[in-house]
Amino acid sequence: MLPAHADQLSFPALDAQTRHFTVGAPRTFSVSPDGSAVYFLRTSSPDDRFLHLWKIKFDEQGAQEELVVDVATLLGDGDETIPEAERQRRERMREASSGITAYDLDATATRATFALSGALYVVELAGSYDVRRLGRDVGVIDPRITPSGERVAYVCGDELRVIEVATGAVSTVATASDGTTVGLANFVAAEEQDRVRGHWWSPDSSSLLFEVADNRQLETVWIFDPKDPRVTPVSRQYPKAGAANPELSLVMWRLDGSTTTVKWDERFEYLVTASWPSVDGPLLTLMTRDQRDQSVVRVTPETGELETLFTAHDESFLEWTPGLPALTPDGRLLVGVVDSDNDTYRVAVVNEGVATPFTPVGLQIAGVVGYTDEAVLAVADADATSIVTVRVNFDGQSETAGSSTSITRAVGGVPGGTLVSALTDINETSMTIVVSRPGSEPVIVPSFVRSPLDAQPPVTPTVRLLTTAEHQLAVAVLLPTTLSPDTTNLPIIMSPYGGPHFQLVVGAGRAFALDQWIADQGFCVVVADGRGTGGRGPAWDRTIVNQLGSLPVADQVEALDAVVAELGDLVDPTRVGIRGWSFGGYLAARCVLERPDKFHAAVAGAPVTDFAWYDTGYTERYLGHPDTNAAAYAAADLIPMAAGLRRPLMFIHGFNDDNVLYAHTQLLSDALLAAGKPHEVLSLSGVTHMPTDPVAAENMVQLQIDFLRNALR
Fold first, then answer.
1. Using an 8 Å Cβ cutoff, are 348 and 335 in contact?
2. Shared domain check, 624 and 582
3. Of the residues 423, 449, 475, the one at which a domain ends
């Protein structure tokens, strides 16, 4: 809950309390097959801490919003208890919310399932919304309901189980042995490949496909918090670059208890996508460890044999398109392809192994939301800063919704039917969710999000966009709101992420709220997306291969020089700080180590310092295997650069971070100490890679700004 004096909170406090102004926003949308209802999650007010399940129903009276599941009535006066496996799963998903964080509908949207505080529930979606607990298991995670709505599969402890909705009878599908998991997505899949599921029902509800991950050959790392030396460290099996990946297998379980093991192709270490779209069998996307070869296969349910439907190869690395591969209702296979000749990510129809792209050249497809026999509904990058929704017919004709410096992102629906869109603009601090139906007026889904305008003093992001000359980098510049005509020599704070496939300069003013607050403290804040950060096409993304450190630094320098040339005496290029988190933390530290002539202070949050100690799925995509490409790892390593530190440097890192291990900061700190280089380390007790404690988050921001202000005097 927000404190009673929430309207008196400073921006850092309000930003932290509202999870960056997301509490109260509608999210996680599902559209019923007939388009007559839209389900979503949202808190009941801006200071409610629980997500509840809601519904917008369309009938002859129009659109009505209804509360389907009230979490408070289920928990009573108690608090939520989150199983440890679910905590780890949420960490991979960057999920910081409480209450119902996910739900699953049956094929007709007449019943849904969800887990809450480790218990399993089902809710009837017609009539009075009867909610009841299923079984008495404690520690339930990731429940999935059959298309028929008759059974629910879920993971509990080390078992994958199935429960009958009508009787409550439970069947154990599989039990994990020591060092393995069943029914869950493995670390690399969840952290680096956007796959958070580990089990899938067949369309006829008779069979369940599930993942088995053998992690016994992985490196064992220990996570501990020195705040309480009595607590035993916790072990994690970590897929360190160059070391072992999980050994994966897939098993099909049937209601009669029989099983079939999928005949795995050992050339492929990664299961990138999995779905079961038709009775013909599951569709899988498999990828080799070097991520240069990919195969879309169909599993024969009776035998477990793999039928190859499509293959792709790229000399650098391959991508995957969210929502694909997929089958249209008439059975055509849709895949995402890299059209290198036209430098475009496109959607293609596969016929006898040959993929024929049909989405427009130059429109970078970022994901597919829905499809019919006539068209696909996709989300795409139209240019460096805008995201659009596009309906593309199979003959190539397209219709686009969106504009420059904005985001119009479809988040649910089917082409030609009910559509849910998220709308933002670079000049707005809010996001609007709109439900559109043919023949009806658009409906805005109410949002309870507090605004940066509610902070004391109010924050109004005013973003100025620049494009650099040499590499056409997208750059956002934020100046103090109270800038006077005679202001000169503002210190500069660079605020990048800068790593592969993650854009910060996008058409959403709300994304720049924190940067504007920092600017209002008397700085010029610069946010720059360098090469490789996504949204610009295959060639752009692949420039960063083997240049994971040097290229991002060069691009931040290019952006800085462009801003200085544009603003002249308004800014002071002799007082430049840089701050970032995760890859941004790595980049910040590298900038002051490699280019102290340009960068005069840095705050490095949760930085990777030695990529040999980061995970396989991310690191090897851009640097290859350390045994065969040691030079690229050496070039990216910050540890040997420690003796060259000449500028103030602060590290911030959580002891409980199991993504970028705390060891990264400690290794570089030790090297700096050995070289006699002063620096600061702010260690966060009980904090993972995703700080969620509001007090810690608030104070972290203020401490960073105080550090940079003092360093740039």
1. yes
2. yes
3. 449
Residue numbers in the chain where pLDDT is lower than 70: 1-7, 402-404, 414-416
CA distances from 669 to 581, 639, 651, 674 (A): 17, 9, 9, 9
Amino acid at 477: V
Instruction: Give the separation between CA 356 and CA 159, rounded to whole angstroms.
Output: 43
The residues that bridge with 478 in the sheet, in sequence order, are 525
Q: Which of 400, 415, 449 is the last residue of a domain?
A: 449
Q: What is the Cβ-side half-sphere exposure of residue 384, based on CA atoms within 13 angstroms?
A: 17
Same structural domain, 518 and 440: no
Q: Do 420 and 548 share a structural domain?
A: no
| Cβ atoms of residues 157 and 182 within 8 Å | no
Indicate the pairing of strand 364-371 with strand 375-381.
antiparallel
Alpha helices in 534-629 (DSSP H): 538-542, 550-567, 583-594, 616-623
Task: Return the structure tokens found at 612.
Answer: 């040999």
pLDDT of residue 262: 97
Query: Omega of the bond prior to 480 within 30 degrees of 0, cis?
Result: no
| C-beta neighbour count of 605 within 10 angstroms | 26
The phi and psi torsions of 209 (rounded to 5 degrees) equal -95, 135
pTM higher than the cut 0.90: yes
Q: Residue 560 carries which side chain, given as an amino acid letter? A: L
Domain with 380, as residue range(s), is 359-449
